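Q: What residues go here?
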């Protein structure tokens, strides 16, 4: 634990798209032809931070880019590519991101069919939290139950009062400690209207003075 998790400051790494803070994973359990970890990717000065679970669920074990390769990943990209949102352009496996950052609460790759254990999540929590605080985005968009639980527990005071029902939480706006949190249901669980709901929520936020969320944790407009 003697080495710092972040080796540089944000100002020195904004030209790096993948792993801009030089994180080094604590273990390598990846399968053949897979990346050791799927690091954070995108605009290090972003206002919007999309947070997934792990590479086996949300993709990137071979591309090294979050939210690629899988049905979950492609569906999230489709929302972020909406012309009125316009966070993502370019090829799906190596997208170009503007005002958006992608990362996972559990960045390390595991062999196909393996799920992170509670101790795996606990071991990687400090890496994720350090990166989230370095990005310091206005809007946190956790995808799926694991990421939503972590974000609500660590960055809001509401977790004890909230039933973690992703169908009900999907595309809602929740106040955090200096953040707005907008949970997203896993796309493979989406029902009719879920894609449109998160797209409309993001359009509404972008049309508002959303930068006022910093400090007051609410939206103006």
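A:
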């Amino acid at each position: 634990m003697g080495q710092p998790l972040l080796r540089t400051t944000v100002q020195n790494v904004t030209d790096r798209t993948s792993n801009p803070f030089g994180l080094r994973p604590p273990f390598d359990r990846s399968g053949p032809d897979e990346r050791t970890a799927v690091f954070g990717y995108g605009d290090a000065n972003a206002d919007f931070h999309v947070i997934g679970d792990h590479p086996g669920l949300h993709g990137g074990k071979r591309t090294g880019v979050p939210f690629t390769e899988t049905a979950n990943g492609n569906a999230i990209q489709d929302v972020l590519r909406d012309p009125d949102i316009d966070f993502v352009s370019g090829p799906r496996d190596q997208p170009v991101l503007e005002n958006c950052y992608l990362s996972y609460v559990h960045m390390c790759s595991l062999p196909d069919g393996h799920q992170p254990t509670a101790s795996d999540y606990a071991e990687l929590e400090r890496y994720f939290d350090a990166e989230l605080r370095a990005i310091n985005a206005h809007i946190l968009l956790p995808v799926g139950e694991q990421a939503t639980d972590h974000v609500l527990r660590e960055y809001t005071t509401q977790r004890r009062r909230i039933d973690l029902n992703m169908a009900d939480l999907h595309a809602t706006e929740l106040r955090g400690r200096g953040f707005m949190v907008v949970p997203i249901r896993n796309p493979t669980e989406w029902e009719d209207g879920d894609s449109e709901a998160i797209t409309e929520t993001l359009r509404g936020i972008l049309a508002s003075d959303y930068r006022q969320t910093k400090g007051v944790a609410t939206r103006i407009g």
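A: Context that may help when evaluating the design: The first helix runs from residue 10 to 13. Residues 1-14, 215-221 have pLDDT under 50 and may be disordered.
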